Amino acid sequence: MQRILWRSDPAKEVQDFHLLIDHTVVYGIASAPYLALPGGDKLDHALETQRQLAALLASGGFDLSKWADNIPALCPDGESADKLFRDPDGVSTLGVLWSPANDSFALRVAPTTNLTSCTKRSVLSDVARFFDPLGWTAPVLVLGEIFIQDLWLAGLSWDEPLPDNLQSSLRPFMDAEGLLRVGGRFQHALLPFSEKYPLILAKDNHLSLLLVRETHSASLRGGPQLTHSFLLRRVWIIRANSLIRSVIHACVRCARFRAATAEQQMGRLPAEETRPSRPFQSSGVDYAGPVLLRTTKGQGHKIMKGYICLFICLSSKAVHLEAVLDLTSSFLAAFRRFTSRQGHCQLLLSDNKTNFRGAAKELRSMFRAASTFYQECIASLANNSTDWTFIPLGAPHFEGIWEAGVKSVKFHLRRIIGEHKLTFKERTTLLTQIEACLSSRPLYVLSNNPMDLTALTPGHLLIGEPLMNLPKPSLKNVNYLKNSSSYEKTLRVKKCLFFYFLS
C-alpha cells in the first residue's frame, strides 16, 4: 500500500489517499518494474495471466508472436508450440540475457584484447561498453568507476600509458587452479613460485585471518613487521597491516606481555652503528637470565640454573645467541663459538663491570678488578686483537642496542615456552630458531607495493638472504651465462666456487 498526501490549494486541508500497489502500477516509483512483471506461484495462475495478457493485446490489434518461459506447459497445444523461442543462448532484453532452460540471467561481455597499451581513453571506452539499464552489475562496475577516479587523480593525459602500479591492478594472474595471484614482473627471478606470484586474498576473507594467525605463531609470536614479511612469501593480503595488527592485538599470549612504555628522549647513535663494516666486526654482548634448565627429560630430573649470552652486531642488528651454564668459564667458550661462526670481532662492548658487580654474586667475582678470570678474559681477547670496551659508569643508555636485543629474545621466549623448563639441548635449539627469526626481521618498514623487492634483513648481510627463507634453485647444471642476468651469474659463480672448493 502506498500513502499519498495531496492538496490542490495551500489553504485547504491535506487529503490522505491510500493506493493498493499490489493491483496498481505507479510509474516512477522504485517497485514499478517489479510490479509490471508479475508471475504466478502456481501453474493455473500463470496460465490465467497469460490468457489475460493475450486477450488484452488482441483487443488492441496486437498479436503476440513469440513466447519464452521456463515452464513449457504454458504452451501445451501444438498450434502454439511454434511460438516458443528455440534459441539455446536465451532471450536478450535491454542488454540482459535470460536463459529459460535454467532460469538464469547473464550479460555478454567481450574481453579486452589490447592490454599492451592501456590508456585513460581505452579504459573509459571499455567501462562504457557495459549496457546494464537495470543496474544488476553495479557491484562489479563500481570497481571500474573507482579505477577511473584513480586515473583522474593521477593527472594522466588521454593517450598516456598507465603507470605500472595502475596497470598491475588490471592484469590479475590466474594460476592453473583458478587462484588469483599477483602478476608482477619477477617471472625470470630465481625465487619460489609462491614468492614470485603471491596469492591474492581479501582482508575480510576468513582464510586470511587463519593465515595471519598461523604466520604469527610460526614467527614465534613476532611483531607486525616480522609477521608481515613472513606472510608476503606466500600470500598478498590486501591491506594486511590492519588485519595483522588486529590479530596480534587479539592474541591472548601477546597481550599478557604488552605494556605501555614511557617516552624516551633518544640520543645520537654511536659511530659503530652508523659506519659500514662486516657483520659482527663491532659487536655488543650481554647476559639474559637466569633461566631454569632440566638435567634430563621425564621424572626424576633436577633443576639447574643457566643463562643466555647475546652477541649483537652494532651495524646490521644481526643476533647470535648462546646458551651457557654459568657466568665465568662458559663465557670464553661461548665467545670462541661466536667468533668461529661469525668471524673475528674487532670491538666488543658490554656493561660496565660495576653494573655487573651490583647485579649478582657471580658477576661481582667475575668482574672484580683483581679477578683472575677477568684478567684471563682480557688476555684471551687481546691475543685475538679484540678490544673489549665497557660503557661509561652511570650511562645505561649506551647499552640500548643489546638491551633491545635481550627484549626481543624474551619477547619470543615468553610467548613460546612461558614458564616451561627445557633441557640444555632444547634451550640451545630454541635459541637458534629465535636467532634465525631475529636475523630475518626487516630493517625498514615494509612497502605496500607488490612490485618492490624483498625487504632487507640482517640475514642478507650474513648469507645473502633471510635465514628463514626458502632455498633458491640450484644452478649447477646451467651451462650458459650469455643470456643470464647479473644476479644469476653471481649465484652460479658463487655455487661453482663452492663445488670447486669441495673437489
UniProtKB/TrEMBL annotation:
Pfam families: Peptidase_A17 (PF05380). One of its GO terms (molecular function) is nucleic acid binding. It comes from the Eukaryota. InterPro entries: Retrotrans_Pao, RNaseH-like_sf, RNaseH_sf. This is Integrase catalytic domain-containing protein.
